[in-house]
Write the structure tokens for this entry.
Amino acid sequence: MRELRPVPQLRGTRRHIPAAGRGTPVKRQTLESRLLVLVTLGLVAFGLVMVYSATSAPAALARTDPMSYLKKQGVYALIGVALMMLAARFDYRSLRVFAPTLVLSALFLCLAVLVIGTRVNGARRWVEVGPATFQPSELAKLALAVWAAAYLARHPAPRTLKNLWRPIGVLLFAFCVLVIAEPDLGTAIVIVLILAAVLLISGTPMPTLALGSGIVATLGLIAIWFEPYRRTRFFSFLDPWKDPQGAGFQTVQAMISLGSGGPLGVGLGQGVGKVNYLPEAHTDMILAVIGEELGLIGVTAVIAAFAAFAYAGLRVALACNDPFGKRLAAGLVALVCGQAVVNLAAVLGLAPLTGIPLPFISYGGSSLVVALLSVGILLNIAGRNAGTARASVPDRGRRDSRPRAAVAGGR
């Protein structure tokens, strides 16, 4: 019978065995990156189809090029995908150096658009750059995510309302005032969601975050209440049938389109709401076109796609050991998915209409390019932190919100 001999082990060595359920292997990280790419490109391709469906019939009736919007959106998609691929290869940590410059530039552009911006449908949100137009508030979302991640990677997470106010609250207030003045309430809401996500993953206590968000929401409601037109538009979702030809018109038409689709829809390209009834069918109301033509199944698939994006993106954030990368990933996920939630809730009649587009799907160059650039940075974070160890969740017991040591006995 063969004798069993003990295996010698050097004294002083330590072997780290990850706790069950807390490890982040390379394979999982790679799968999350692939899921992000798959969902993103799938939504972009689907968006091109729906933009053509929403614009071709009205364009044909107006005797213009039915493929005009599709061609423009296709160019924006190519530019966005190219930037996504470049961002996925550059080191995201270099953004930390440019964070102050980015946020100051975005603040200047948001101020400039109120003076030199082009007014469309009563809103001054766009700046003309040659043959194209650019929306500075889209850049502001990305710049704020980068700046907040860089700042909170260097400083302890604010644990009281007083600490939250300076400088984060001051900068948030400045951007929200400028964006609401355009007016663009939807982007202001997304900006709040981005900063909330970065603060939360940094270790800011939930009561402090909830109190700060409540103050921001109260100030926003006060500003809306003293402007009769905005007040009527904002609260019309509570009872859109009270004024179906006025303030509640968009919400009512969205409900009719969604209800007309039923479970399976009337067929791709066969919807009628987009032709004469549904305002802005190719931008912030494109979900209503999806609901009419592809039915409940189509709407559910869109919601599931964004849920998958949020899951993969948050896994990337939690798995990242770099403080800046962790916070930036959380902010980028909030940028994309927060905007999606605001749009979906508005079209479904659960929230006020804010005119914000559905990421990757709605027509619009600024929104699409910034969203794809954000995905590229997120992929960069995922790739550079793949297999670096394990998901380090902030220790809320620490004042600086540092994660607990990854290796037993390590410091």
User: Anything to note?
Assistant: The longest helix spans residues 26-61.
